[in-house]
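Q: May I have one protein plus its fold?
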Amino acid sequence: MNWHDWSYIWSQIFTVVEYGLLGASYLAKNRKAVVLLDIASMSCGIIAFIFLGADLGMAMSIIILLANFYYLWDEHKHSAKERAKLHVRDYVVLAVVLTGILVVTILTYDGPLSLLSVAATVLYEISIWQKSTKIYKLLGIPVAFCWMTYNGFVQSIFGVVCEAVMFITSISGYVRELQAEKRKKSRRRKK
């Protein structure tokens, strides 16, 4: 086997680990768990994209990783009551992240299909930024579709397969969230 073959094999191994962690994030019940699982997932994704030579996908994963460190800090620094509302700092962070996405996209653009990773990253950032696990899980559906298509573009077989599983997992997580919300409302009515 040559280096290219080994590189591809390692990319696929890291892809499977990445998506296992990401799948767990869609089933997590609180934002802190979502962020911790996403940090681990994005770290594996960065390594996978390095092995694949997918510069824009790697760059988007780095942006997500850096933003997740801010969200993790926010979870530790501010009380649940403070985090429940959006503050000026949250809008500033979102603006910085979206600007970073734009700059990195310009620097690493690799054709129209590579923009799927950009769309997925923008939707993801909006989903986790706004602090609602319900919206996070809902937006996980188009995010999964965009990443699945991008993985096809960069010829990551396990990326496509795993993202198809993520697509199903995100739908399942969203349905579970809706069911929990419905049960909660039902209990309130009974009281």
User: Anything to note?
Assistant: The mean pLDDT is 88. The chain has one domain: 3-190. The two ends are 67 Å apart (CA to CA). The helical segments are 3-27, 31-52, 55-77, 80-84, 88-108, 115-129, 133-153, 157-190.
